[in-house]
User: Fold these one by one.
Assistant:
Number 1:
Amino acid sequence: MSIDERAVLDHLVLDFRQMTAFAADPWVFVRGEGVRLQDQEGRWYLDGLSGVFVTGLGYGNERIIQAANEQLRALHFAPPLHGTSPPAIELTARLREIAPAGMRGEHGVAVKLLSGGSEATETALKMARQYHKQSGHPRKYKLIGRYGGYHGGTMGALAASGGWERRSVFEPLVAGVLHTHPPACQRCPFDKTYDHGACGITCARLVERTIEAEDPETVAAVIMEPMSISSAGFVVPPPEYFAILRAACDKHNVLLIFDEIITGFGRLGMWFGADYYGVAPDLLACGKGMSGGYVPLAGVLIADRVWQAFLGDPDSRREFHHGHTFAGNPVACAAGLATLAEYEERDLIAHAVQLGGHLHARLEGLAETYPFVRDVRGAGLLQGFDLATDTWPEAATPPGKRFEALARERGIIARCGNDFVGFAPPLVMETAELDELCDIAGACLEAMAP
Ligand SMILES: Cc1ncc(COP(=O)(O)O)c(C=O)c1O
């Protein structure tokens, strides 16, 4: 590279990152092949996180590259205020086929195509408010999220997110957003034990109590991730959680929004987390795995009954008052179509179930060897564990951060919180590659053992 890279690096703004520290120890990726990434020092890394829950098809997928290239040559941009393009129509049709059955209603789901996860959740939140305005409940505007949840970086999505670490410097955020405690059995906020539901599933009941306490006639929507990752690691709700939430939302005419930016497109071993739990939301935001990261692509699936409220005469002003220039971009849609075809034709979602079971078993094995590995949990290809912090009472660096540094040294990529390590490997990973990933994770734990 002819430019003075060091002079640029602390002026290149990465997400959630102190750039002076990054510039002192940069990490620049130059190439990807299969499930591996290479940095500019020439070192290869096994991708245990699919980039960031994105590259489910790995790197260098020729079919997607070709589909995007062909579309670039045919038409790279269609005037969005005037019309659409064949790939956008085809992708919408395909998404309507794979949408959770309970969302389809009489006419099937509607689809709003977008470019990123935050756009998708933001769009879903705005749609919920407009829906009530024009379906006889104009006072419904409040949105309920949960503490620790993450829905994106834009103001509305961030307002619905529940981690103060990312919110506080931007407050006050959008008005009318409330939070309840997460369904995190491993660290139950109510100090209860699940025990086959003996806890009363307080986490779910509390959402209904919140709706009632706020006056249901003012509550528009509840937004939740089917399985989320927060600073406390993967939050795996008890099996009853979403059915209780669905019933509460139905009772009070509140829309249920699933943020499936991470869980969509096979990660839990079904097309969507909604299928995994057998509970259909009214709006489903998706992104990340939708294009496998080859192009920016996201969307919102809209249940039939919600969409009907947006149809009418052109002068009725019932159309959705929302848009983005790159929404439904033809190149993104062509790549998205090829991505969905790959998931389906290579039977990768079934592979994710098998691979996820193997990953879980391997992590359980690590927990048996290293007693400081606790609470192995997850579903499908979203699996992780806690690190018992009291194992290293004198340590200045949190154990998750030590693991992260060791992982980089030894050539794997994982998601590390202060006391949590999570994996979300590409759906195309082979069992031998997964074993290599777990062996290296084991070597990192061995190096940390007191
Ligand atoms: C659950 C969830 N929702 C929304 C987002 C925001 O997506 P994006 O970063 O593509 O805007 C993320 C990003 O990590 C996410 O994990």
Number 2:
Amino acid sequence: MKNTAGKGLFIGLSWAAFIIVLAISLLTIYLVYPRIASIHRVLPIVLWAIFGLGVVVVGGGLLLITIASLTGLDVLYPHNGKSITMRVLFPVVVGFGGFLGWEKIRLMDAFVATNNALLWAQRKRLSGKRILVLLPHCLQFHDCQWRITHDIENCRRCGKCVIADIAELGDRFGTAIRVATGGTLARKVVGDYRPTLILAVACGRDLSSGVIDSHPIPVFGIPNERPHGPCFDTTVDVRRLAELLEMLLPKPSADAESK
Ligand code: SF4
């Protein structure tokens, strides 16, 4: 998947936060150790056991996420477990990265890029039976009179915005495409359609909250391009959307093809 820099930022900050927490924990244990040992001789063993378990679980999970996102190898446990880990890492990285001076939107883009990479590593396990393409309303040309939020087929395909190309993708792949004007409507669309997989186009902020809100449904996030500023006549790389659909939709079996 593209956006290696985003993945690197997210993974790097995750490891930095992990090492800092590890160092603080070791320092705390060092300071309280004599007191704990004086209370009961078993307590230090319990303390080290809890510490060791935490290091193995968190460090091991982080190691698997790092390998999967950077190499594309499916070394992860089921994606629900991965989502939980990512839901924990997201606030840690955004908080820690923000503290270090990174822009929040850059950190959210990095989260989406890492989530995409992990889903990509697990792509053989994902079900493409009911893919939903979810679009933001700002992709539509601002002066267009046709109402596409209820039905993208209302688009007259004049070519003034990418909605025309995306509607054609829907025809070509037979995929459900919905346009949402905000998070509430997006959640309703997802609840009504019940997809097995979502391809969402939006800004990093909406994509990162969408990835978390849609759990356990996997969400591939495709950041929109904003040549005129946020939320106004935005656009998206339609070829990238088409490539993803091509790769994620179930392939007809050899038997079905020969009939
Ligand atoms: S392509 Fe469709 S949505 Fe875009 S301006 Fe033309 S009619 Fe409106």
Number 3:
Amino acid sequence: MSIVKLARPEIQTMKPYEAAIQIDDTVRLNANESPEISPIGNFRRPLNRYPEVRPRGLQSKLADRFGCAPQQLLVTRGSSEAIDLLIRTFCAAGQDNIVTPTPSFSMYWHYARIQAATVIEVPTFAENDFAIDIDAVLAACKPSSKLVFVCSPNNPTGTPLSKDDIIRLLEGRDGKSAVVVDEAYVEFGSEGSVIDLVDHFPNLLVLRTLSKALGFAGARCGAVAGPEGVIRLLNAVQSPYALATPVVECVEDALAAEQLALAEKAVEKIVSERERIMSAIESYAFVSKVWPSQANFFLARFRDADGVMQHCAKNNVLLRHFGGALSDCIRITVGSASDNDCLLRALDTLTES
Ligand SMILES: Cc1ncc(COP(=O)(O)O)c(C=O)c1O
């Protein structure tokens, strides 16, 4: 059953912004642009002109890469923007909620708060390797739960969710909630994407990003894939001209076959480094647990997490420390071999102090 009817009623009837038409080789006096072309930058498209309202070429390329039809995908400013668009499209302020396992990616809370949507948290537990309990997620949902966010592999735990579990969640919330599967780190794991399920489950939305495996965090580019009707709504909500010309051109270049082959090699290196530093870190006496991870980071529990953070910072190595249930844990991003050696050298001196 289509989930378009779950969107805020005023969004369901909204039309996309009507931008000035853009036709090459015409005298363009319809968009209050400058006729002057700046010598700054070396782009294929002139920067005095607005970019396309939606970058259609890039949309096709990304759809191809991720495995869906172009009309099932919206290009966004990082997948962060997609989270924001989804919450604004589906949640009426002060009325609706999102459901998500915790701990998870803090942007779900951030954008929910901006939209005055509440967050129903479903705890996962360290003793259970932070496995997501699908029955508990389903039980936590209410009629006003418009979106269920599951991150797989999850940030900051590195835990993946199986395709079977995702299907159970989709079936359990059929016609009642959109299930948003955030695949920011999917390339580093073995579960693979569930984007192929978009054709079979009308309540599935999948988030992808170019910030992690492709190494283009600075370009701010991501995508949301899902049913055409929902993509149309998100398109109406997204700012016109959201993707700047330099970004579109840089990402088009990043999607060339030889660049993708390099990115694939980089992922292999990161995965092998992940295994190397995880086992090195496990061997320190002051580390009590390292959780398995399918991402480009992992979570470890330290006897004195604050002390480790300070010691590493003094040694020029920055790590990520969270509060609450994870206050004794640190999330470690897998860097280059030499970055990782810096971390291990810093930790070696902690053993000696
Ligand atoms: C789980 C998850 N989703 C989405 C994002 C957002 O990524 P971006 O906006 O760079 O695409 C991040 C970034 O760290 C993340 O960890």
